[in-house]
Design a protein that fits this description.
single chain; 316 residues; alpha/beta; four-stranded parallel sheet; binds phosphoric acid mono(formamide)ester; binds norvaline
Length: 316
Amino acid sequence: MIKHFLELADYSSAELRELLDMAAAQKKLYKEGGRDLCLSGKTMVMLFEKPSSRTRVSFEVGMTQLGGSAVYLRPEDIGGLGQREPISDLTRVLNGYVDLIVARTFEHSSVIELAHYAKMPVINALTEKCHPCQAMADMLTIREHFGRLEGLKLAFIGDGNNMAYSLAAACMRLGLAFSIAAPAAYALPKESVEFLKKLGDGSNLITTQSPAEAAQDADIVYTDTWTSMGQEEEKHQRMANFKGYQINDELLKVAAAGAKVMHCLPAYRGLEITNEVMEGPQSIVFDQAENRLHFQRFLMKYLLEEGTEEGMRHEA
Ligand code: CP
Ligand code: NVA
């Protein structure tokens, strides 16, 4: 069976815990100067419909550290995924060239279609629906800071977007309580909330419009941009509608003592987070950014060692 990494719900709690354990072990190896050239000679293509700094660099560096190489296709190189040619044609061409696809797309259905035709693993590097690599790097970071995941509470302040969805999924699977404060028009859709609740074994998932209610006693207070990629035309409206959905010193007063502040970045200081909080002692935003590299480097190794059908690429 080819293993893909499209969304966290596709993995059980035990599998996600195992991925975190193995990623942590590989991080330790690297930090101690060890190297693992297990993907020597392997190649990956990165299909990106949207801009990226962290995701692109961490995947490329990760693949290089494992001994493989990466080809990056910018939005203008692809000419619009599914527009210059059907995704099914492009994927079947790539089947003959590379060992791994990392894709950042607008529609989530695009990564599903890539995975359908691919004879190699496909990794979701962000879609409109979710950002599973970021959420797993975040879980690794939380575990490093708190020494555990189970029983913690993560409060998300802001848009019920791809980040909120993936963090909620991660929390449900890994035993954290999740609360989200969003304006009514930007809440996580009801169907998503029902689906996400079922991923857990009774972990709390609370939705509210009140940032203070969501952040009450939270161990982690997390936010993301009010305007995601692809929503630029709504920016002014969103800036008005999200006013007050900000992580600032006042909000942190209701969180647990020693609460940590997280942001997937890029951050817009003065909007969803103040400069003081972003640069303050509770912020762990750069630790989570670094862990993108450590989690994804391990993920590539895992998917290529565990999740490919040897020889399939050359059968068609
Ligand atoms: N957090 C994140 O995915 O950042 P980039 O958009 O820069 O890749
Ligand atoms: N919600 C943001 C996340 C960026 C990493 C976006 O989709 O643009």
